[in-house]
Amino acid sequence: MTDQPQEPTTSWGQMLPTFQRGVAVANHAESGETLKSFITGLRLDKILSQIKRGDYLFIQFGTTT
């Protein structure tokens, strides 16, 4: 979901504000990050410390072939 400057590498996460008016999106994505580095790098802890009741958290990890 990391922000990219132009097509075709832009991600669905960049489009969320376009389709969800009045919704704030905090994009914490980093290209190439693994689940292990996401957790051990305390990135999940940071997000969980900021999230509030009623917020949504979307996490996506992909693979390349």
Strand content: under 5%
The arrangement of helices and strands along the chain is HHH
What is the mean pLDDT?
76
Rounded Rg: 13 Å
Walk me through what this model shows.
This protein has 65 residues and is an all-alpha fold. The protein is built from three helices and no strands. It has helices at 12-19, 35-40, 43-50. The two termini are 18 Å apart. The mean pLDDT is 76.
Show the helix and strand layout.
Elements: H1 12-19, H2 35-40, H3 43-50
Summarize this, please?
This protein is mostly helical and 65 residues long. It is 34% helix and 0% strand.
Main traits of this protein?
0% strand; 34% helix; 3 helices; single chain; mainly alpha; 65 residues
